[in-house]
Amino acid sequence: MDKQMYHYATVSKALEELAQKGFTTDFNLEEDRIINSDNFVIEHIYRYEGESDPGDEATVYGVTSGEGEKGVFVASQGAYENSNAARKLLDMTIQGRSEN
């Protein structure tokens, strides 16, 4: 499935949009599931770029497990240095781009 990237004014707007699409599990609370499984697919990517502070930048992932469970993972710009789950999702995004 093609990954779709959207741009919204706020992270909360992206989360609201994903919730309307059925992405209700908060995978930030269950990072180990992402880290320890190759059974996730990124369906949507939402980028939020702070207008005045680069530290406000974030990426919201809409992911689906192999069992069909839909959820979200929010990664701040610094998360890629501190979160194994964020790094794995970033790697999945990069791999997906190179396959197209």
Commentary on this structure:
This is Phosphoribosylpyrophosphate synthetase. This protein has 100 residues and is an alpha/beta fold. It has one domain (4-99). 35% of the residues lie in helices and 30% in strands. The protein is built from four helices and five strands; from the N terminus they run βαβαβββαα. The chain has helices spanning 11-20, 31-35, 79-82, 84-99; strands spanning 4-7, 25-26, 40-48, 58-65, 70-76. Strands 1-3-4-5-2 form a five-stranded mixed beta sheet, with helices on both faces. A hairpin with a 4-residue loop joins strand 4 and strand 5. The longest helix is centred in the last third of the chain and has 16 residues, at 84-99. It is globular, with a radius of gyration of 13 Å. The chain starts with a strand and ends with a helix.
Total tally of structural domains:
1
Count of separate DSSP helical elements? 4
Report the β-strand fraction as a percent range: 25-35%
Task: Report the C-alpha radius of gyration, rounded.
Answer: 13 Å
Low-confidence stretches: none
Give helix % range.
25-40%
Topology:
Layout: E1 4-7, H1 11-20, E2 25-26, H2 31-35, E3 40-48, E4 58-65, E5 70-76, H3 79-82, H4 84-99
Parallel strand pairs: 1-3, 2-5
Antiparallel strand pairs: 3-4, 4-5
Keywords:
single chain; 100 residues; alpha/beta; five-stranded mixed β-sheet; Phosphoribosylpyrophosphate synthetase
Q: What is this structure, in a nutshell?
A:
It contains 4 helices and 5 strands, in the order E-H-E-H-E-E-E-H-H.
